[in-house]
Structures are given as structure tokens and as C-alpha cells.
Amino acid sequence: MARVLLGWELGAGRGHAVRLSRLADLLRTRGDTVILAVQQLGVFAGEADAWQAPLWPGQLVALARRAPAAPRSMGDILATLGLGDTAAMTGLMRAWDGILAATRPDIVAAEFAPGLMMAARGRVPLLGLGNGFTLPPADLERFPALGAEAAREDEAPLFDRLNKALALCGRPLLDALPGVFASDAAHIATFAELDPYRTSRGAGHGAPATDGPVPLAGEAGEGLFVYLSEPARLPAGFLEGLAGSGLPVTLHARTLSAGDGERLVRFGFRVESAPVPFVRIVQEARLLLSQGGLGFVSSALLAGLPQLILPFDMEKALTADAVAGLGLGERLLPDGFSAATLADAVGRLAHDTALAERAREAAGGFRARMPATAEEEALTAMDALLGR
Length: 388
Fold this sequence. Notes:
Rossmann fold; 7-stranded parallel β-sheet; 6-stranded parallel β-sheet; 15% strand
């Protein structure tokens, strides 16, 4: 039986924790020992062997280190988090060195954890975990801009400072900055169509992580289901727009206070405090609205339900654009947003029979790529590294 270290550093989405929890359960079921080193210990409060993952400078002083403008590449994101701080990166890798020495894993699986990947690479079998966005191809010469505009950060000084940190830690130097994500094997848990690096990566995509079984939609649903991962980022007029759509609305939001829930009920919405199984969503909804979380969007593609997406960051905007490009939904733009534009979009898409038919037809192709779950595929990749 193996000792497995599951690490998670960056990204605040619920999907990172869900994926590691399910992978940990699979590993324990067959007798492996699991050690967790994670960004948010509170999410894993019931775990017997959980460590606090070393934090990046931008996580410690997030308000003070906000980027002056929205990032345009993974290099921009890592720079904002502190990749160019030689002392901090040295400390980060040495902290991971301490965890690796104390836990003595036989294999490491790293979920959006480039610091752990740099510390573990060459010392222990290393599996990179992530979706298309969070695990870029490690063999690129530089991180490409993910959009029409050029990246904001000059990678040359970042690269030089990081290599100084690697040298101080006695680690091999990088040939290019994307090498921070290098591993012995990578499991890309996303549909290729949703991978912003799909033209650079080619093959190798696996099943996306979902919240459970996803049935195929029929034609019985009549309502709008709304999932809000970040309610605080909603534009003015959002709730009024939902109320004006004419559809029955069921809404689930993360971190929803009692007062917010009461306000939503006054709008006439059915409010769900706990996550709603996709089985039920498919039975009740004809249209889905979200902020573009990859797990929810992927489940919608598997179900064959049209989508309306209001993204609040670069990753989710890329996902929304991909869905729109497939002709399976639309992206709401913050510029010119109003209650009236939202009500119009919801009503129009909910009654677009051609869109509904396209979504159901496309679902078959996505479902054919799910012979196993994302966690089962990750387990297979780990076994291959262990020679099992």
C-alpha cells in the first residue's frame, strides 16, 4: 500500500476540495494512506492527517497585492501571487521540503500547486492534477495571453528571480516559466472544448470533475436553475432581472446569509441552502444560469441543458466563451448589463427550441467521454506512476 500526499495551493473554488476529497476516499478504500496538505484546512476539518499548505505572498496580503488590472495570462496571475519574490519562493519551497520530509510520501498528486510541484519534482513520482486552465502545458516557451490582449507581465524578470530561488533550494533550474507545472504525468480533467490551451496541448484530456451522476435532460423541465458561486460579485439589477424573466426560479448560492435568503424569497425564488443534486436540477430546469464554474458547466453539457453564464474572472470568462462558441449557451457581458437585458436573455433562451435541441444532441458526445470519473482516472494515472 502506498503513502499518498495530496496537495492544493491556489484557487478558491469548491471544485478543488471536492476533487481531492473524492480522490482521498478512493485511495483509502483500497488501503492507501492519504496525507493532505491544502490551502483551506477548514474544508477538511474531519481529516486525521491534514497539513496547512504553504501560502503564497498574494494569499497572505491579498488586498494589498491586488493586480492593477485584470490578468491576461497565467504568468500575470502567478506574478500577482508573488512568483517574482525570490525570498518568498525560497521559503515556499523549503516549507514544502519540510512537509515532504515529515510525511515521506511514495507519490505526490498536486492540485493547482506549482510550489509543491517544484519541490517534489525529481524526488518522488509526481502527478499534476487540474482542469485545462489550472494546469497549463509545461513545455511552452512562455505563458500565452488567454484573450485578444497581450499579457501584462514581462516573464523574463519573473523567470530569473524564480531560478534564483530554485538554486538556493538546490532544485533544478527551469528552461522556461511554464516549467513550474512540470510533472511525471498530468491528468487534465476537462473536456477539450473547455481547455484554453487545447491548441497547444493536443490530446490527453480526461473526464471533468462533477458533483455526482448527471442524467440526460428530457423535455419536462420548466424553470430556471441559478447557481451562484460568488453572490457578492453580482451586478446591480441581477435579482430584479431574474424576477422579471417570467420563469419559476430555483437558486442555490454559496455563503448565503439568512438575510440574503429572506430577500431572495421575497423576490419569489425558491432558495436552496444546500447544493442541489444534478439529478433534481435536470428534472426541474429548462435553462441554467451560473457564474461559469467548470464543474457546473460541464455537468450542464452532460445533461444537455442550455446555459447562460455571467463570469467574474478570466477562467470563467474563457469557459463562457467556449460554451457560446459551441452554440450551447450565451455569455452575459457586464457592460450594458441591466435587469431588462437579463430578463430578456433568460426568456429568450428558455424558449429557444433550437438551442434546447442542440444542447441535447451535443450531450451524447460529452457523455461518451465519461467511461470513468475524474477521480477514477486520476487513480489510474497514479497507479501507472507507481508501477502497479
